[in-house]
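Annotated sample (chain length 431).
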Amino acid sequence: MLLCVSASHKTASFDLLERLSRTPDDVAPTLVSMAPVVQGAVVLATCNRFEAYIEIDEPVTAAGAIGVEAVLEAVEATTGVAAKDLEGAYAVHSGRRVAEHLFSVAAGLESVVSGEGEIAGQVRRALKTARTDGTTSPELERLFQRASQAQRKVKNVTALGRAGRSLVRLALELADSRIADWSAERVLLVGTGAYAAVTLATLRERGAVNISVFSPSGREAAFAAKHGIRPITADEYAYTASRSSLLITCTTATEPVLGPEHLSAPLGIAPAGCPFGDHNRLIIDLGMPRNVDPAVAHLAATALLDLETIRLHAPLEELQATDAARSVVRDAADTFHVVGARQSVTPSIVALRTHIFGLLENEIGRARARGDEDGRIEQSLRHLAGVLLHAPTTRAHELAATGRADDFAAALETLYGIAPEADAAAASESA
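Output written by the structure step:
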């Protein structure tokens, strides 16, 4: 059974999401090792959500409670966030609802900005991390792969991708009210990851030209050379930060990388060929956990725009595009469950066919011994076997599609005394 425990900007506070995002990579391995009933786990942690997707081997009546308890214990063990702190801050999706929820997330339908594109890559990276850690399972693999397919279909057949905007773009749109001439801004970009590249491209679209980059991990030189901007070393960081008019942080650091001490230092090493002067300052913090010490907002002539503020200014969804996208997502989720249900009944069908074909070969052998020289009896027997198998095979798929695959397996055992073999079940799961 699939289960998702989801804390997002819709259910949890920004501070709680920040605490959950500090050590997300440890949650899935801890979850799998702590709970024997958990067959696989994939954790999706972004700037606005923390979600654990798990597959559990437990009776349906007990699966939900056991799965949620396992997730909360693993979260507490790895992030330090106690289960009582999560009360009322998460939602639980189980069974058929899991696929539709993840597909909606991957398509950007559950994001702060409906249709934002960064989440699709984060979903793919979550699966890749689970593979590296050895915590995924066949059903979770299928779930996340189909989520990426659904996202691409939403992008291709709806207007959501064109209507939606990324957090980076929305943040800079909000900054427009403070910036008269982007080409005159002295911009310091802190971070060199995927968000930094998107931010840089968006800055250039708006006309920014005086852009420097600093990396807390020391990767500024390579990023600057690739993108044609000025690298800032650790020795130059405070000087440059204190004299920049627009600072944008987007690192994966777990502690703030920009604070009052960087912005009020009058002395330092000035980068060659980079004059600075007095100015009003805008800081945009795109980090999760937050990259900027909130205390900077109290500095004179300084404004701080963080993810929590950006979320409050998110535009209304583009209703028509969103409705079309949700229709695509629902269809993809229905297909996911139909295929999964048919796969779940496959071992039983294989067992039935093996039984019938075993009887068939015995009868063909007898016919040949009695002189079936022209093979007509064999042909008739094979045709009869096919006719006899058609109805139960069709019925098996119908039962599976409504969640009653176990009824078919029970009927086989009652009528014929046969049951799916373990290797057939395993083959079905990996299909």
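Annotation: Residues 167-312 form a domain with the Rossmann fold fold (CATH 3.40.50.720).
Annotation: The CA atoms of residues 155 and 161 lie 5 Å apart.
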